[in-house]
Amino acid sequence: MLDWFRHGWDHAHDTDPYEWVDRELGGNVYGLDSIFDAVRKRNLPRPHTIDDLRDLLHEHLYVEADDKADYIRLGERGLRVRTDDDEVDLAYYFIDDGAVVDLPDRLAFLVHDTWPLPGNAAAAGASFSHGVPVRTVQLGAAGPDCVFSVRLGWDAPDTYRNLDLAGAVALPGLTLPDLAAHLGGVDTSDVDGWPHELRLLRDLITPGDDDLTPALHRYARLPGYHPSPAGISNTPEHDGSRPHPPTRSLVRVDTHIAQVARHIDDFFGFDQWFLFDTRWAAAHPDLARSLLRYTAHWDPFQT
Fold it and tell me: Can you give the pTM of this predicted structure?
């Protein structure tokens, strides 16, 4: 990581910083070129240590933050940066490959580069312990099973900003195949106080849904990047009164994990929603824990 930034120092005086970052990383990273632009304009000294680099980043890297030290976190194993591009909060990471090997329960999801996640699951009775803060809603009977809901989108009413994360929703006593029927049997007047994504899912389920597939296809067709439970049942996509419009959204439902990549538009791209239970998590514990951690705090190294 230190060598990569030194490499940028070496090119800062003969290459446009924005274009260099774009070529190196295969796309723009909001604000990252500012450190190399400062190298060129201020002739900043080349960092010799991680401490040198940290001081230079804290002073010269552009981030939207009142407390830059908290939003630019650099250690021996990784740089984690949070900023705001005036549309949404975003974070980017430089992670040492040794940390990926040593800390898969924190980083496996971040470095997983294909969609969807694998769909196989463990046998009945498998156990899973996550050790990550979650929001628990008790709907089912007591038991070893649990369903987890992880929605990665823009600022829901539960939180102020999309990276002020509240954590996944945990539903103890349920398996994923039970979830649609169980939620569908809850009267909508009884959902006050539920996390937003759980109320959203309840409103997407209609009578007769045996599993989550129809509801998640309805979600995949919701317009905009700010879906709300209010009025969903009145949309043509929900009530079936018109043919579905074309969509680039992706839906995959396996027995113990359901996944949606909902296309917003060409600027915002996709948001994602994962619903999985203990049996899937037991078969993929590092993916499950890192996914739960990713929605609990923007910094995967946060303790």
Answer: 0.91
